[in-house]
Amino acid sequence: MPKHTYPAKFEFLDEIREFVAEVARAGKFTEKEIYSLQLAADEAASNIIEHAYAGVTNASLEVTCEMQGNTMTIIMRDQGAPFDPAQVKQPNLKAELSERQIGGLGVYLMRKLMDEVHYESRGKVNTLTMLKRRV
Amino acid sequence: MEITTQEFKHGDLVAVKGRVDSSTAPEFSKALEKLNENGRFKIAMDMHELEYMSSAGFRALLACQRNCKKYNRGELVLVQVPERIREALELAGFTELFKTFDNQVEAVGNF
Q: CB B59 to CB A98 under 8 A?
């Protein structure tokens, strides 16, 4: 199972997206789907770095990507504060410019881009699991 | 990520290249804020060499659009948005907040 551990810093988002793209390419996803998978993984990792690890230095983030049949599973594990995407309010996408809230947009994109998003916080470990089926 | 700015009589053309994510978005935001601080509120954002943009970049675009449109002093418009990025902007409900153009001349000429 391809797995990498990254320092929980925004500078490593590039590498995380590249890792996801590699597995997705081998799994025969289309370029459009690969972009979606990269964006979902980026938003998920960004949220973990920004929220779960807020104010924490020297933290790390473990990313697992694997294909099973036509489904790709991305798993992210962190040991920060629990941050359940399901608790994030959906942004109002019809609001006027002045009322637009940018908070929650990353989580919203994750949910729209992936087929399934699950979250579990157990002991000190938080696990985010995202699934996408190849069309 | 790389940003270049060209000033024209009616507005500015800003080209953003490469990737805008949580790591590079602060620099992207700063460049846009600097334009606003210099009294430039009519901005055409040329995206044709942009490979990737996450919601961190969308946040910067939104903040800039708010600032530009204040007092009707200007507007931020988008030029040659790559398909993948346009799809993500659409998903985020952002396409209705920005006029888009197929070329730079039309975009700057719109001001």
A: no
Rounded to whole angstroms, how far apart are CA atoms A104 and A125?
Answer: 22
* Cβ(B20)–Cβ(B61) below 8 Å: no
Whether ipTM > 0.90 holds is yes
Q: Show me where the domains of chain A are located.
A: 3-133
Instruction: Please give the interface size between A and B, counted as residue pairs whose CB atoms are below 8 Å apart.
Output: 65
Write the pLDDT tens digit of every residue in A41-61.
Answer: 999 999 999 999 999 989 999
Domains, chain B, ordered by start: 2-104 (3.30.750.24)
Contact A46 B56 (CB under 8 A): yes
In total, chain A counts a number of residues equal to 135
Top CATH class of A3-133 equals alpha beta
Closest chain B C-alpha to A18 CA, distance in angstroms = 12
